[in-house]
Amino acid sequence: MGKYDEYREKVVEYSKMVFSKGYTAGSGGNVSMLIEGENALAITPSGKDYSRFTPAEICIVDLDLQPIEGTMRPSIETGMHAAVYKNRRDVNAIIHAHQTFASVFALINEPIPPIFDEVLFNIGPVVDVIPYALSGSPELVENVVSKLGNRCNCYILQNHGALSLGQTMEKAFANMELFEKAATVYHHALCTGRAVSTLPESVVTPIFQLLQMGQDAEIKRKSEI
Ligand SMILES: [Zn+2]
């Protein structure tokens, strides 16, 4: 067993789950994990079909994008993933995909407000829109970094797709599922033409504080490794 094997295997497992959920097609999207105790990440390679990754093809690179292990070229979005890990020390796993209803909001350029308790508890009070820039460009990385300070766990990438963060890969995936469910229902609600009710501020503020306390605890845990 190599020292990165457990990360490689988990990235492959969840890449296949993202594909089987229909959240992406072909080689679109990318999945990564931060390597515990190192400034490095395991990430899917560029241009390979999601359903056919093997653990040996997962790339290990440091947060300055220098290769550590792997024979394939890392995803074009590796810079975006590294920037999230540098700027959100509570995050240990990231999924980027192109699922349908999140993509609707990527086209109409509208954030998703707080509409369900379970989304509020796990993602935060808003799924905000990160302004468009070309995939893989430094501008896209800058635009992502400019929104991370809201401390939420999901984002819409304008005219592109979706980004989900988590303290674990399991949570990043669960957040992606919640995000797509909320986007689907919110879309259907908007289609009725009726007013959409959102959660009251008296609930949003304290629940979001709980989420942030969990993030602070993870940042403290990692700082003591
Ligand atoms: Zn993409």
CATH superfamily: Class II aldolase/adducin N-terminal domain
CATH topology: L-fuculose-1-phosphate Aldolase
Radius of gyration: 17 Å
Q: Alpha-carbon distance between the termini?
A: 23 Å
Strand content: 15-25%
Q: Major β-sheet, in short?
A: 8 strands, mixed
Class based on secondary structure composition and strand pairing: alpha+beta
Q: How many helices?
A: 7
**Would you tell me the overall average pLDDT?**
95
Along the chain, the helix and strand elements come as HEEEEHEHHEHEEHH
The CATH class is identified as Alpha Beta
Task: Report what the structure shows.
The structure is a single chain. The chain is of the alpha+beta class and 225 residues long. It has a single domain (5-223), classed as L-fuculose-1-phosphate Aldolase (3-Layer(aba) Sandwich). 44% of the residues lie in helices and 15% in strands. It contains 7 helices and 8 strands; from the N terminus they run αββββαβααβαββαα. The protein has helices spanning 5-20, 78-87, 100-108, 117-122, 138-148, 169-191, 201-223; strands at residues 30-34, 40-43, 59-62, 67-69, 93-97, 128-130, 154-157, 161-166. Strands 4-3-2-1-5-8-7-6 form an 8-stranded mixed sheet, with helices on both faces. Helix 2 (78-87) runs parallel beside helix 5 and helix 3 (100-108) crosses helix 6. The protein is globular and about 55 Å long. The structure holds zinc ion.
Features:
225 residues; alpha+beta; L-fuculose-1-phosphate Aldolase; eight-stranded mixed β-sheet; 7 helices; 8 strands; 44% helix; globular; binds zinc ion
